[in-house]
Write a structure and sequence with these properties.
The structure holds 2 protein chains of 2 kinds. By secondary structure, chain A is α/β, with parallel strands linked by helices. Chain A has 2 domains: 154 residues, 3-Layer(aba) Sandwich (Rossmann fold); 239 residues, Aldolase class I (TIM Barrel, Alpha-Beta Barrel), CATH 3.20.20. Chain A has 14 helices and 18 strands. Chain B has a single domain, classed as Aldolase class I (TIM Barrel). In chain B, helix 2 packs parallel to helix 3. Classes of the chains: A alpha/beta, B alpha/beta.
């Protein structure tokens, strides 16, 4: 019988029903594989529904008697995480509470200042930083000296260590699927084939500030897909890549890799595509890959908002992309954002008319969320964007659309979306 | 927005008309055009694949037709993805009616409400039991939709006239309680805009705080002032002849 670990680490994901935190899977797989932690650290993951009462989150965490508690934080679960931290601090007083993720990473010092129960924030990619933090705890070294960590320093307040460089070779990160720390949830698995984004949309944190695209090797992706495809009950893959059709060559490779599984009815759902680069040939490749539905913009058709958000929109190519996908039997979800800087109410209505007029299959309308780390977050004052400082940071008013009209546009848009969905 | 071409089924009392403003026609029973004429109308403007044009069956209460599901099915056969029924809604309460309509392909129900209470609605509709039947019918639609995992849209039309105007906010509230997806306030000609606008504004705001979109028809957007967006109606009714 092996001795009990000196350090018990609980990783807590608060997600929507049917989702598991892939981020925590990556972090745990990396920490488990770190030889410096072998034999001294034990890991447990709690995947809970974000709507679970924070008292019960604390109850589950306390039952694990952890020394370290890590939460993955997005704008969608941040309030629930902060509530849980407050109760975990009091129910497990000795535990070190660590946060990471896109909501806290760009504003780590502010998060620590506002949440006295949190001990440290891991900034940027966690696969190297979090194990380093655990090693520092084992060796009784200060967390604020760990690259990529913001932490409290006795007598000096909150201190941020220098940023940690991006992981140069993503293949050095252990696969959470191949390591067995995460399994498909409800018949679906999430796969990441690269990090970064070719676009620089002002509202989006998809690229997470990573300046360039770094890919997992094709062999690594193939191994994950083959492993998952043989998992009992797997019905679909979702690729979390910001743009599935990143290059033609890559799309062809993915189609070839996924085709055998598509023949066994394993489907790809709601992958994000750059629709203006899809014609009949690309739609055919997506079909081969088993793609059932794709998600895409235009987010807005207003020229001023497109410029403010550094986006482009080619109406003809967009329409051609939807038609090519529809001809291939692939449903398209067109996304629109209400409240982008530069858009007037008439632009938002034009966007609705455009999207519904395409009859793409699905139209999704959502309010702007001004996310930490994005260009719009940094330039909110310049754009006269007013938003809720609390997550999920929904827009309150813009220079062109007052508060009440934003709410009206949301309701009108929702009525249109519901009418659109009411069909045989 | 989403276009619906009107197929006129016949003549009869207009759903939602205030009987204190508009006396009932001499013959309150709908008179339907011959079935072959209706079918010919439907066939003359087939739905285009990829073009989201729906069909609204209007002119006479489609639920008073001898075989409403067959009308809906005929519209679906022309390629219409959305078939709307323009009806007082009482007929939806008949046993099995809602489910049969959904089975045939009906997805949009445009019903009429004249007041926030049973007493007000029934008095203005000049039909006893009308409110209860409508409420029962909408519950039947919701239940049938759940059973069939179908998405339906309930558009509640509220006539704005001197007899309804002060009750508009409460009527919108009642629409929300009955499960409406949208309310459209239809201002009757001759309504005093100075008196009506205050109530229309309050009704719009009642919808907003209850997460229900309220459109206003018959009042120019400019007259609605800061509530001008309420002139926007996601449901766009067009005459068959005006389609390309």
């Amino acid at each position: 019988m092996s001795p009990a670990p000196r350090q018990k680490v609980a990783l807590v994901g608060l997600s929507s029903v049917g989702y598991r935190s892939l981020a925590l899977g990556y972090v745990r797989a990396a920490a488990q594989a770190d030889p410096r932690l072998a034999g001294s650290s034990g890991f447990m993951t709690l995947d809970l529904d974000v709507s679970v009462d924070p008292w019960w989150v604390a109850f589950r965490v306390a039952g694990l008697r952890p020394d370290v508690v890590g939460f993955s934080v997005t704008c969608w679960n941040a309030r629930a995480v902060y509530d849980a931290c407050r109760l975990v601090r009091r129910s497990v007083p000795g535990a070190v509470i660590v946060l990471g993720g896109p909501e806290v990473s760009p504003i780590a010092e502010d998060v620590l200042a506002a949440n006295p129960d949190v001990d440290a924030v891991v900034r940027g990619e966690g696969e190297e930083t979090f194990p380093e933090l655990l090693v520092a705890l084992l060796r009784d070294r200060p967390l604020w000296r760990v690259e990529g960590v913001t932490a409290r320093r006795e007598g000096s307040g909150i201190v941020s260590a220098p940023d940690r460089p991006l992981i140069a070779d993503l293949d050095t990160i252990p696969s959470p699927y191949l390591a067995g720390v995460i399994e498909p949830a409800e018949g679906s698995a999430y796969i990441e084939t690269y990090r970064g984004c070719p676009h620089r949309c002002g509202y989006c944190f998809e690229g997470k500030g990573f300046g360039r695209i770094r890919s997992f090797s094709r062999e690594r992706v193939q191994a994950e897909v083959d492993h998952l495809a043989t998992t009992a009950g797997l019905r679909s893959f979702s690729f979390i890549d910001p743009v599935f059709n990143l290059t033609s060559d890559r799309l062809e490779w993915l189609a070839g890799m996924l085709e055998p599984h598509a023949r066994r009815s394993v489907r790809l759902h709601t992958i994000e595509v750059d629709i203006e680069r899809i014609g009949p040939a690309e739609a055919g490749l997506l079909r081969r890959a088993g793609v059932a539905s794709v998600e895409t913009g235009p987010q807005t058709v207003g020229e001023r908002a497109l410029a403010a958000c550094r986006r482009t929109f080619d109406r003809e190519r967009f329409v051609a992309g939807v038609e090519a996908l529809r001809a291939a039997g692939i449903s398209v979800e067109c996304d629109l954002i209400v409240g982008l800087p530069g858009d007037r109410a008439s632009d938002v209505l034009d966007g609705m008319r455009f999207a519904v007029g395409l009859d793409p299959g699905s139209v999704q309308l959502s309010s702007l969320h001004v996310l930490p780390g994005t260009d719009l977050w940094a330039r909110a004052d310049e754009h006269r964007l007013v938003f809720d400082p609390e997550p999920p940071h929904e827009v309150v008013s813009t220079a062109d659309i007052p508060f009440a009209d934003l709410r009206r546009l949301e309701l009108c848009g929702n009525a249109l979306m519901n009418l659109y969905k009411a069909r045989v | 927005m989403l276009r619906f071409r009107d197929i006129v089924l016949g003549t009869g009392p207009r759903p939602g008309e205030c009987r204190l403003c508009t006396p009932a026609p001499e013959s309150p029973v709908p008179v339907f055009r011959p079935a072959e004429e209706i079918l010919a109308d439907l066939a003359a403007h087939p739905g285009e694949i990829g073009a989201p044009v729906g069909v609204r069956l209007t002119g006479a209460d489609p639920l008073a037709h001898p075989d409403p599901p067959s009308l809906v099915a005929a519209a679906v056969r022309t390629g219409a993805q959305r078939v709307a029924l323009d009806t007082p809604g009482e007929g939806l309460a008949r046993p099995g009616a809602a489910d049969a309509l959904l089975a045939a392909g009906a997805r949009v129900f445009e019903v009429a409400l004249l007041g926030s209470t049973e007493a007000t609605h029934d008095r203005l509709a000049a039909r006893s039991g009308s409110f209860d039947a409508l409420a029962e019918g909408l519950a039947a639609v919701a239940s049938a939709a759940e059973g069939r995992e179908a998405r339906v849209f309930v558009r509640a039309r509220v006539t704005v006239c001197p007899h309804t105007v002060a009750d508009l906010p409460a009527t919108v509230m009642r629409c929300a309680e009955l499960g409406a997806s949208q309310v459209v306030l239809v201002a009757r000609e001759g309504v005093d805009p100075r008196r009506a606008l205050e109530w229309i504004g309050a009704a719009c705001d009642t919808g907003t705080v209850n997460r229900l979109w309220v459109s206003v028809s018959g009042v120019p957007a400019e007259a609605l002032g800061e509530r001008g967006l309420h002139a926007v109606d996601p449901f766009e009714a067009v005459h068959a002849g005006s389609l390309p």
